[in-house]
Specification:
The complex is a heterodimer of chains A (about 750) and B (about 290). Chain A has 20 helices and 26 strands. Chain A has about 750 residues and is of the alpha+beta class. The chains are: A alpha+beta (about 750), B alpha+beta (about 290).
Chain lengths: ~750, ~290
């Protein structure tokens, strides 16, 4: 695909949501209130696993100010088992499956009364044995989370908690290992980590006895919220109008519901609007973190650095319900490399922990951490340059990927070459300092999308899309619309419509929005342009197909060329009332040619040999994004991913006690990096266009969290001369290893 | 819940004598958080900030009296106080964020009773003295004598601190405070050390005190570590002996913030590093 020239793409206009956010005007999940509104609170299980013998809510109901109390018994069963798991995660039925699992909820005239009512609810539990570690949960005889959900192809050597098994690869790994000059096999463990979004889950629900409702909530996908809630509540999707608030971070964590069905049920029962806002402690105990993992990775390498075979066995723990995310890890593990012999297997396992949910490139960072660590160790052992070895093995156009498909044009080689040539890679290293290198991969997705575009009579454009803006999509969508229409960015306003104002759109996830909504926007613009040309033809009294659209104007073409001066979008729109009415364009579709994206990260870090404290000194991230529509947002995405990965590598973890209770449900002891912990992350954008998008967009949000775990681990190994095989590499663990 | 702004110390003592769930408010950086977390339900909040003198730093006998409502930011901006007790000031300034610094107080940090309180080891090393008001009147008590157990102090019923006194000191003196946290700020000490030294003209340590935080139920004075430093210029051997004495004085817990092994080792590292800084501040060249 040849390089295109753009007028607007690649510039850095001021973000359209900026002023409202910095002045506090922007409305987030907890910012909306309604007349007569009640406040809800949720009673949560203090036990990791317990049978709920009885729940007595009579005293709570009798408390003045309490308007509704619900338990799991208030929810009817649903047909779809995945929806049932979501429902039972929102409100336990029969058993409490993890510390923090919702048991009952109260709506009252104040938050304080609701809190007092929770203390009046009497729950009788029968405590059951629990399990929170993935390897223990896989053992036959481990406490069982659910009956009858074990993956079919598995034998008696694993417990019924093992709900998924996947295998990818090709070639003959044993033959490949036999050919290797060096084979290293290591076992790794990584902790469960939280997305760390600052805004807790919050909603305002209003559901009448007539089955009509409105829901305001912070989410990455309001259509998903609508359909899940409508199914759980037994109402028609058309009758529940869901509006996505501004979002204070999601990173995958807001791609499901935790509280919305509860608030709707309380509203239905009380006949009043109900506001429900999670506390930070509830966010940690009862929303979804990502999986923890236990992994075995074996790689064989020739003296020249050529990888002869790779085998990964990934065991992921995803909490108290069936899920299927290890597949992503198994697919990603070796995706960076062009391998003759490769196999990756994955097991999804349930434990007594909160149900997992996506977290930026879900499943990939831990798998790639294992693979990139072993490659680094092989490079050390064979005395090879880590970037040279990766270049030698890098996947490129035409490579049969480790998970099946052949890659189209991709940019890993370009990213590796950029890293090798960057001054960072050749800068001298002081004592106690190490330099880590690692690659990473993410698929990026397409999915269903709807866009509606209206041309206003003053020559401006309104655009409605159905995907919550979690990373700057309103800016990038307006930019792509401006590029397609040939008008200035400032003339366009893009909003995220509610579920009643634009067609269905999949959740904002998989780094899909700039790609998929972008395609829909370009197609909507094409539809509007066709109509604009038609109107111009009508005014000029020439044939419709004798008009072309150039630089934001209609021009006569063919034998009419030059007969009339060009008409701008504004001129045509101004008279639209007389030429057939409003001009608009829309597009609905499911684009599926998303382009995979690769990243290469370099980190310099220093380890204090007396305390085990790791300090990140320099960090450079290279990433192929296809086309950076708004480079400042793209750099922000790359920086954000790198920072989350650094936190995962160094300090972040869910800590469970022997009692199965979460010990660190707050940002004090769940340590995400603070600003002073980090240098400026230098983001280097590589642009190898995706042939599946008119402007070459791949998507950029997720890849950047994949390399840092191994990059930091490889840096620590070099700095202290000892390799750790467990994340996080918190100071006590590093000091112990020294 | 009632909110009472006390006019003077007497009123505070009288209110505290009443049988109510009272909470004293100076900076409020612990009180408000606890209330929001539903951990405390006071019947009455007694605001002590308006008591005359309680929000001021005053010079006294060559030292400084720090009112119980003086914020960390106020201490950090007081150049003479910083020159005399830089270690105490740096300890207070490590508490929380810039915003918290505008409210948080050293007396509140002490009264909170946390074994990991940043200012306490620094105050112990400085031999700070708290002025306590209570039903029996006013008394001056060494900070060390007020330490009791996690979450509590030895203050009696209806007693409260109105100020903390940091004494005068000779020319060749310096103090320092260091803590270990897994991040660079916004965190709680996993192990910490306050060290105060006085040198002679030859750069020999003639007086020393070493205190550790977060490694025992309360902050602790480690006289063995201080003894190891006296008579030396902080050469390798005395520093090693200091670290060993610190390790011996540790009785930490294993918890989510650190292991026993880690805290015991790092406490000595912090003490030695703080000692070197204190030594340099005293004019010594190690």
């Amino acid at each position: 695909m040849s390089k295109q020239e753009f007028k607007i793409l690649g510039t850095r206009p001021i973000r359209p949501d900026g002023l409202d956010k910095v002045t506090g005007k922007a409305m987030f999940g907890a910012d909306k209130s309604a007349t007569g509104m009640l406040h809800a609170r949720i009673l949560r299980s203090p036990h990791a696993h317990a049978e709920i013998i009885s729940i007595d809510t009579s005293k709570a109901k009798a408390l003045p100010g309490v308007k509704a109390v619900i338990t799991g018994a208030d929810f009817d069963d649903v047909e779809n088992r995945w929806t049932r798991y979501t429902m039972q995660n929102c409100m336990a039925q029969g058993r409490a499956l993890y510390d923090g699992h919702a048991i009952a909820a109260v709506a009252a005239t104040s938050k304080k009364i609701a809190g007092a009512a929770l203390k009046l609810i009497e729950v009788e539990y029968k405590i059951l044995p629990h399990v929170t570690d993935v390897d223990e949960a896989m053992q036959p005889g481990a406490p069982l989370l659910h009956e009858g959900v074990k993956a079919r192809k598995l034998g008696d050597d694993v417990s019924g908690n093992t709900v998924g098994y996947y295998s990818f690869g090709h070639g003959d790994v044993d033959a490949g290992f036999a050919k290797a000059d060096e084979v290293i096999e290591r076992r790794f463990k990584t902790a469960a980590t939280h997305q760390g979004y600052i805004e807790p889950q919050a909603c305002l629900a209003d559901l009448g006895a007539d089955g009509r409702g409105a829901l305001w909530c912070t989410t990455q996908g309001h259509y998903m919220v609508r359909e899940t809630c409508a199914e759980i509540l037994g109402i028609d999707a058309s009758q529940l109008r869901v509006t996505a608030s501004e979002i204070g971070g999601g990173f995958g964590g807001k791609t499901t519901v935790f509280i919305e069905p509860v608030a709707l049920k309380l509203s239905q029962k009380s006949g009043r609007p109900v506001k429900l806002v999670m506390s930070r402690e509830e966010v940690f105990r009862a929303t979804g973190p990502t999986m923890s993992a236990s992994m075995d990775v074996k790689i064989g390498m020739g003296k020249d650095g050529k990888i002869t075979a790779g085998h990964a066995r990934l065991r992921y723990q995803g909490g108290a319900f069936p899920y299927n995310m290890v597949m992503m890890g198994a697919m990603s593990a070796f995706a960076c490399y062009d391998l003759e012999n490769v196999q990756s297997e994955g097991w999804d396992v349930m434990t007594n922990r909160p149900k997992m949910i996506s977290y930026r490139a879900p499943g990939a960072p831990m798998a790639v951490y294992g693979v990139e660590s072993v490659i680094d160790e092989l490079c050390q052992k064979l005395g090879l340059d880590p970037i040279e070895v990766r270049l030698l093995n890098a996947a490129k156009e035409g490579t049969k990927s480790s998970y099946g498909p052949r890659f189209k044009a991709i940019g890993l080689v370009e990213a590796l070459k950029a890293a090798k040539a960057h001054p960072h890679y050749s800068a001298p290293l002081p004592a106690n300092t190490g330099r880590g290198v690692a690659c990473g991969f993410w698929f990026n997705f397409g999915g269903q999308v709807s866009v509606s575009m209206a041309i206003n009579t003053d020559g401006t454009v309104n655009l409605i899309e159905g995907n919550p803006d979690i990373g700057g999509s309103r800016a990038s969508i307006s930019m792509m619309a401006a590029e397609a229409l040939g008008i200035p960015f400032e003339r366009i306003r893009t909003i995220v419509g509610d579920t009643a104002s634009v067609g269905f759109s999949d959740v904002t996830d998989g780094s899909r929005v700039t790609f998929a909504v972008g395609i829909a926007t370009i197609n909507a613009a094409k539809a509007a342009i066709r109509e604009l040309c038609k109107r111009a033809a009508m005014i000029w009294e020439i044939d419709e197909d004798a008009v072309e659209w150039v630089d934001g104007t209609a021009r006569p073409t063919g034998h009419n060329a030059g007969d009339f001066p060009p008409m701008s979008l504004a001129e045509i729109a101004a008279t639209s009332g007389k030429t057939g009415g409003p001009i608009a364009g829309h597009h609905e579709g499911a684009p599926d040619k998303a382009g995979v994206s690769f990243g290469v990260h370099l980190v310099d870090l220093e380890v204090d040999p007396e305390t085990g404290f790791t300090s990140i000194k320099r960090y450079t991230a290279f990433q192929d994004v296809g086309k950076a529509i708004h480079p400042a947002y793209v750099e922000g995405q790359i920086q954000g991913g790198a920072v989350q990965g650094i936190g995962w590598a160094l300090n972040e973890e869910y800590i469970y006690g022997a009692d199965g209770r979460l010990q660190n449900p707050g940002f004090l002891d769940y340590r995400i990096p603070v600003a002073s912990d980090l240098p400026m992350i230098d983001a280097v954008i590589i642009e190898v266009p995706n042939p599946g998008h008119p402007y070459g967009v791949r998507g950029c949000g997720e890849t950047a969290i994949v390399p840092p775990l191994a990059a930091v681990a490889n840096g620590v190994a070099q700095a202290v001369g000892v390799r750790l095989f467990e994340l996080p590499m918190s100071p006590p663990k590093i000091l112990k290893a020294l | 819940m009632r909110y009472v702004v006390a006019k003077d110390s007497r009123e505070v003592v009288d209110l505290l004598m009443e049988d109510k769930a009272n909470l004293l408010l100076a900076g409020g950086t612990d009180v408000l958080v606890r209330m929001r977390l539903d951990e405390r339900y006071p019947d009455r909040i007694i605001d002590i900030k308006k008591i005359p003198g309680v929000a001021e730093i005053t010079e006294e006998s060559g030292g400084f009296r720090i009112g119980a409502a003086v914020s960390g930011a106020q201490m950090g901006e007081h150049s003479q106080l910083k020159a005399l007790w830089p270690g105490v000031v740096e300890a207070v300034e490590l508490i929380g964020s810039t915003q918290v610094q505008g409210r948080a107080t050293m007396a509140g940090n002490l009264c909170n009773g946390s074994p990991a309180a940043d200012s306490v080891p620094a105050m112990l090393a400085a031999q700070a003295v708290a002025r306590v008001e209570g039903p029996e009147g006013v008394s001056d008590q060494p900070v060390l004598a007020l330490l009791d157990a996690p979450g509590q102090t030895k203050l009696g019923k209806a007693e409260f601190i109105t100020s903390i006194f940091l004494p005068a000191r000779p020319n060749l003196a310096g103090d320092a405070y260091l803590r270990f946290i897994p991040r660079t700020e916004m965190d709680i000490a996993v192990a910490s050390a306050g060290v105060s030294l006085v040198l002679d003209e030859a750069g020999i340590v003639i007086e020393a005190s070493v205190a550790l935080g977060a490694v025992a139920p309360t902050a602790v004075m480690v006289s063995g570590a201080a003894q190891a430093l006296i008579g030396t210029r902080l050469e390798a051997a005395p520093l090693q002996a200091c670290a060993a004495a610190c390790a011996a004085a540790c009785s930490p817990i294993d918890d989510k913030r650190g292991t026993i092994e880690f805290r015991t080792k790092v406490a000595g590292v912090m003490a030695c590093r703080a000692a070197i800084t204190a030594y340099q501040r005293a004019g010594g060249q190690p």
